[in-house]
Predict the 3D structure of the following.
Amino acid sequence: MHMSWKMLQTQRRRTVRKRWLGTLAVMLVLVALGFSLHLSGGRPDSADSNTSPVLSARPPEPEHVFVRTIQTGDTLSSIFGRFNINQGTLHQILAADEALLALDVLRPGNVLTLTLDKQTRQLEEMELFIHAGSRVVYRRVNDSSFDFEEIIQPGTWEQELLEGEINGSFFVSATRAGLTDGETAAISDLFKDQLNFRREIKAGDRFQVVRKRQFVEGESTGQSRIEGVRILRPNRLYSAFLFEDGNYYDHRGESLVRAFMRYPTKSRHRVSSHFNPVRRHPVTGRIAPHNGVDFAMPIGTPVKAIGDGVVTRVHHHPFAGKYVEIQHGGQYVTRYLHLHKTLVRRGQRVQTGDRIALSGNTGRSTGPHLHFELHVNGRPVDPLRAKIPMSAAVPREKLPQFHQRVAVLVAMMEQPQGHVAAAEDTEESAGRI
């Protein structure tokens, strides 16, 4: 019995020793993990979640700087909540963004960088990285407001030829050739009055597209522009060429785009505030760009689309109020703000003169009016003076210049497949087109 008791004691000691060694091993793992998290700043949003914090070559962000790459479903409110930034600051940022509306639709791949004060943890600066050629920086002015700075990198535009033969649908064939979904949709829209891509396009038909893409320091921004298109079918040629006025014409100089309306209402209403990039805001009293024209009108006045297009936004902004945005081809975007009621939905196609909304007084407004904006190639312009598609053909005096441009693009289309032109410092020309 004595021997049995000693054997039992020995087994107990071994069991205790094993438990103690197991506990020590767990503690060492936890210490190592804590050290790794310390090196990474302990913030999963500051680094790629698929990359080990210890092995990553990226230096850790400071404790007062947070970086968030936008994911599907992210909103500015949810991101601010993640980093314990209060709703008051959110409204201050949105007030500063009223002229741009850059924060109203965050897209996957955009990057937000938030910089807090080290002591107070108050948001001092926020950068929205849209792409390599465009970012916006919001900086605190005082305890109740922010300013913004829009930073545009012109970069270079490289021209290339994309071509192919229809095998299946035009969409599939164009994608196979390297065109994006948006570019393919824009081409289909250009020819919508002449060609039914689903019924008339046949196997063996060919297409040629000259495209320009923007690069900043060798990195593509994702921005592109269709310069010319030819669709070759048996005994029939369809063509579209971008001219200096920003409009597309066929090889004869006939317009492919229905004329725009200059005004977004049936009757002309009094202009209560003109386009002014250095206007003093009537509510805040601070200098802030007025990127559109205000028309004084009673609440409920029908608002019309000034051109054919696709509705890209229908939102209710705390300062811009209810608003609608329409994309007209690849060059033009219009916005209609402070609406009482919207009559369209996102993704809906509209035609020139269609009712899209009723005017109102929503958001930050001093009275019933319609704020109307026109953007050309991503930049706001004066909608009452800008060149927009108003005529059915290239003006007679411009025809020689147009035909010369067409000849250059056609010559490129007839070169071997895959030809890429030399990088062109064309921001000056991009501003004209």
